[in-house]
Amino acid sequence: MTLTAGFANPVADAQSCFRAVLNAMARPGRVHLVAGVTAPFPLCGAAAAVLLTLADHETPLWLDADAEAAGGWIAFHTGASIVTADRSAFGMALTLPDLTGFPNGTDEMPETAATIILQVASLEAGSRFVLAGPGLRVPAILTVTGLPTDFAAIWQRNHGLFPRGIDLILCSGGHLTALPRSVSIKDA
Amino acid sequence: MAYVAVKGGEQAIDNAHAWLAEERRGDIATPALSVRQIEEQLGRSVDRVMAEGSLYDRELAALAIKQAQGDLIEAAFLLRAYRTTLPRFAHSVAVETGTMRIERRVSAIFKDLPGGQVLGPTYDYTHRLLDFSLLDDNAAVSECATAVANSDVMPRVPDILGDEGLLEADVVSSREPGDLTREPLTFPAARDVRLQALARGDEGFLLGLGYSTQRGYGGSHPFAGEIRMGEVSVEIEPAELGFSIDIGDLILTECQMVNQFTGSKTVPPQFTRGYGLVFGFGERKAMAMALVDRAMRASELGEDVTAPAQNVEFVLYHSDNIEATGFVEHLKLPHYVDFQSELQNVRRMRQEAAE
Amino acid sequence: MNDSVPRDQPTIGHPWPARRRWMSILARSTAERIDALLAGCRPVPAHTILRGPEVGLVMTRGRAGGGGAAFNLGEMTVTRCTVRTETGLAGHAYVAGRDTRRAELAALVDALMQDPDRAAEIEAAVIAPLAQDQARYTAERAAKAAATRVQFFAMQTMRT
């Protein structure tokens, strides 16, 4: 394995990526640009940046089979231990995994639920979904290529667990958006 | 209970802090105290601040002491606040005190233990008379004696007595220890969490509690089985390397208290142990910690829990001086509304009584 | 004391005992000293930084009773750095304290020590002198401690 660097400017890049994730969670579906990292194969820049920003020694991480190719880079830069889905704080996937396999928190401690970083083919073209919920004064439209056809139904089962449930960060190229568990999704 | 946001006082606060800075510096005709001087010449203060601040960094502890004008609890508070700004890279492999590079090692129960009794740089046997020669900043310090160090191993006392089964053995476990800095304290608290709390607990509080066990409040007739101080290596296993490496050294003080135990239904009569381990040269703290650790094992060993030091909740909820100072000192913050309502209550009660 | 062995940790069974040794020596050296010793070597290759140098914490652990279950004792500051030389070698450092320059130099020397063309030279000019410094310090402290070892002599019991 040949190691490559992480963020070009570790402090500033991580801060601006953190702000992007925060804004994406606050306004579900809105797309943000993140930069600063040369991503390792097969990750896109946004997914790599989110991992560098959020994962660390104390956040166990699950990788799907495709993301494992970047496992060395991720472990080196974040220090996160690689674990099974049911023990993870974060998941990194290139295909939507079974959301029920991750910790979804408890009513007392909903913050212990996992956050999944999902790399998708596009956040500009593809299937259209209508998002509604906290942070959205009027329903928003999300366009994605790379989600399963029954995604809205899968999501609603997760959303129904609120305040428990999985949060999703969608990444494509240098762009990201977020679907917090509080958002309700239907096909457009 | 309600708090009301009150504005104002900003100028007074700024001025107060400016005055504090001036007071901290003191008379400018006197040379300023350097952090390096504190690190070198107030080593026991540095040790205490590192232990109670739960952060091993001599320079930062010395800086905190300077900034706090020598108020050691304030200094520990500064260290605790600073550590929250840093990411945690790893946890260490458990340090091996058996291979400590010994600078002091004494046992009160075996005169001729292997490796011998090594006094180290101790205040024991001094007469506690003020040394007026230290008033002279330039007084020469005579060179201390050296002797040929032999390579005797210095086994820990449990390793010596353990063979006969007369001394309680350590129970090895591969369980991941709890961490007070990550999960809030819950009860019943296991011994790993108790030891962490004691290691960062207030020396004065633990000293008083330890003393209370000797005076009959949960007495367990302790002996100082062994006290050792010195340097141990710290090892971590970074995932990217796949093997363990040394990252440096810690100076630690370890105390093994040995206590009489009459036995119970399941355990034959034997000696039980209390354990103390603290950052730096902190013999008093390590001894007090070992006494309180043993006292808190009362229910585990089938003893009646009657004394404060045996009450795990009481000890752990009150041993942290940062928490204690926060709650005690918050009383000086504005309670104007609370007090007004109390005042009205008292007036009404007096009025009712008078009628 | 043999200064070629890390201070007290066993190397038996370690997958890379030689590297463990030089990393442990570098972890205990000052930036000024490493810098000064490197100055006496052939020029070092240019290097890029893959990670850090960044300051963080290691949670140190002890064992209940000295040999029982692990517990968290308290944290210590540590600085880590990873560099890659233009010759393609990656060097790592995790060193106690907050000196970023020291971590970078330790990582650089770790990379150089993995280069078969440079290892012997760096060992002789940098690692060996650092090891000697440390062995000297340890020996001095041990000698002072030895002087405070109590030599008991028993009082003859009086008999009439």
Short description:
The complex is a heterotrimer of chains A (about 190), B (about 350) and C (about 160). Chain B is about 35% helix and about 15% strand.
Oligomerization category of the chains in this entry: heterotrimer
Portion in helices of chain C: 25-40%
Number of helices of chain C: 4
Portion of residues in beta strands of chain C equals 25-35%
C-alpha end-to-end distance of chain C? 50 Å
**N-end to C-end Cα span of chain B:** 30 Å
Backbone structural class of chain B: alpha+beta
Biggest β-sheet strands, sense, barrel of chain B: 4 strands, antiparallel
Number of domains of chain B: 2
Chain-averaged pLDDT of chain B: 92
**Class by SSE composition of chain C:** alpha+beta
Helix-strand string of chain C: HHEEEHH
Describe the structure.
- The complex is a heterotrimer of chains A (188), B (355) and C (160).
- Chain A has 188 residues and is α/β, with parallel strands linked by helices.
- Chain A contains four helices and nine strands; from the N terminus they run H-E-H-E-H-E-E-E-E-H-E-E-E.
- In chain A, strands 1-8-7-4-3-2 form a six-stranded mixed sheet. A three-stranded antiparallel sheet of chain A has the order 6-5-9, with helices on one face.
- Chain B has a four-stranded antiparallel sheet.
- The longest helix of chain B is centred in the C-terminal third of the chain and has 19 residues, at 336-354.
- With 355 residues, chain B is an alpha+beta fold.
- Chain C is α+β, with helices and mostly antiparallel strands.
- Chain C has one domain (17-136).
- Helix content of chain C is 39%, strand content 25%.
- Chain C contains four helices and three strands.
- Chain C has helices spanning 17-27, 31-38, 100-113, 119-147; strands spanning 47-63, 70-85, 90-96.
- Chain C has a three-stranded antiparallel sheet.
- The radius of gyration of chain C is 21 Å and the shape is globular.
- Chain C starts with 16 loop residues before the first helix and ends in a 13-residue tail after the last helix.
- Chains in contact: A-B, A-C, B-C.
- Chains B and C meet through strand 1, strand 2, strand 3, helix 7 and strand 4 of B and helix 1, strand 1, strand 2, strand 3 and helix 4 of C.
